Amino acid sequence: MTNSNALILEPTASAYAYPLLIKQLLLNAMSLHGDQEITYRGEMRYRFRDFHQRIAQLANALGALDVKPGTTVAVMDWDSHRYLESYFGIPMMGATLFTVNVRLSPAQILYTMIDSDAEVLLVHTDFLPIVEQIRDQLPGLRHVVVLSDDGSVAATSLALAGEYEALVTKAARQYDFADLDENTKAVTFYTTGTTGDPKGVCYSHRHIVLHAMATALSVCSPGGTQRLSTADVYMPITPMFHVLGWGFPYITIMLGLRTVLPGRYVPEVLLRLRETEKVTFSHCVPTILQMLVTGAEKTGQDLSGWKVIIGGSALPPGLCKAALDKGMDVFAGYGMSETGPVVSLALTPTRSAPASAEEDLKLRCSTGRPSLMVDFRVVDEDMRDVPRDGVTRGEIVLRSPSLTPLYFKKPEASEELWRGGYLHTQDIAVMFPDGVVQIVDRLKDVIKTGGEWVSSIEVEGLITQVPGVHEAAVIGVPDEKWGERPMAFVVTWADVEAATVREHLLDHVRARRLSAYAVPEIERIRFVKEIPKTSVGKVNKKQLRAAPPEAA
């Protein structure tokens, strides 16, 4: 019998046990790209070497406020150089970065501040009124540091520990970032709480480093689907408070990319920065993409060469085509707060022509193929893999080295998330023979009508192809005969009739691309001024069901 202990490598006493830590993501960036530039809104510029120095100064400034390993430091800011410094400096000193979702209600922000055990808060002046409302209910919060673009401190009732820039500038320029256990908690943030209180999601240094490496390899690998290289200029358009900006700030700093931080998202500013800073790589939700396309149409701006990953919700084919027509290279990515987040990308070939424009569009809008090191399965209720036939539906379940291992302080919810040893997404999908996955709906959003399951996402995508339609959301509403029937809420930018929408869907029924059960009756096609969104720009179907908007 083989002695299993004999198979385990025993390193020599002097060998270095290399931990996977966030600080290691800076090694190549500093040694090879020290002169690379980071700019905030095109108004403030510095080099990577200055960034590295300021990380050390931030750690010293926080240390003076008694931040130590295990302390949680909360940040409320727009996408800025300060936020980027916090991404690195706070976890590198052994503390936990808590990225506060500034779009939550004051009550929800209060809940997350208490639940996260935040002791120090770095807060932009724009959000001081929120903090003033809840400060008395935060006895565990020891210090508040204000952030401002001009170094000024707005009038406030809060007791402040100082202003960020002043504290960082006067702090010592050297800091010994000690080696930590790679499983040390680095970051926490909260889900949007559409089904109850927000849940805290946690990631370790190891999770973040492995996600950065695997996603970088997936999107940077030379060949027909490469979308990112060191020649690109990066601008995040997914808030840095939201799932760590999909992990890309860590990835692009690791690779040494020139970085443009846009601050608060204003379409005109984003388009200006895209042009003046020559941005070539971004990521955003469909709502922001729609704003960019609309803004560029008004000004005639050329968006050619701008590669943009779309996530957060399904990429509507109509919007995808509009972006492609503007010269953009858009494609979908998939992930969740709990998945690191990126676990698949709809990377289309760039060197070979697609079989057809229709097939190219379909692939770009799909959930894509799994990223590297992701065990990506579509399973039935008994955890058996469904056939790869593009028809049989199942739930996406996952394993990878960058998934959250738990919900903070919620053991029962954590066990439910990880039942059977796989992370359960509650996303219903099909898988094709070539490994491409297509989500058809969230488990809770599937419409059950006449014994058939209707994909709300599929119907929404088809409606957005109708000329003049800006946006669509479809939910199931009670029906005595069928159990549920689909109801569509449609936002337009031109005159569109309900009969036109219905006839477009019926065309797909006649072509056998859509079930007749999926077509809403004319009276269930409602034109509205806007569709309610969550704090991160997703359609809020819970609110749609509870309080449907009136017809415009």
In words, what does this structure look like?
The model has no long low-confidence stretch (mean pLDDT 93). Helix content is 28%, strand content 23%. Strands 7-6-5-3-4-8-9 form a seven-stranded mixed beta sheet, with helices on both faces. Strands 12-13-14-15-16 form a five-stranded mixed beta sheet. It has 16 helices and 25 strands. Among the domains are: 22-203, Rossmann fold; 447-546, GMP Synthetase, Chain A, domain 3, CATH 3.30.300.30. It has 552 residues and is an alpha/beta fold. The chain is globular. 46% of the residues are buried. The longest helix is centred in the N-terminal third of the chain and has 16 residues, at 48-63.
Which SSEs are present, and which pair or pack?
Blueprint: H1 27-32, E1 37-40, E2 44-47, H2 48-63, E3 72-76, H3 81-92, E4 96-99, H4 106-115, E5 118-124, H5 128-134, E6 143-147, E7 162-163, H6 164-170, E8 185-190, E9 200-204, H7 205-220, E10 233-234, H8 248-255, E11 258-261, H9 267-276, E12 281-284, H10 286-299, E13 307-310, H11 317-325, E14 329-335, E15 342-345, H12 357-364, E16 369-370, E17 375-379, E18 394-399, H13 411-417, E19 423-431, E20 437-442, E21 447-449, E22 452-454, H14 456-463, E23 469-479, E24 483-492, H15 498-510, E25 525-527, H16 541-546
Parallel strand pairs: 1-11, 3-4, 3-5, 4-8, 5-6, 6-7, 10-11, 12-13, 13-14, 24-25
Antiparallel strand pairs: 1-2, 8-9, 14-15, 15-16, 17-18, 18-19, 19-20, 21-22, 23-24
Helix pairs in contact: 2-3, 2-6, 7-8, 9-10
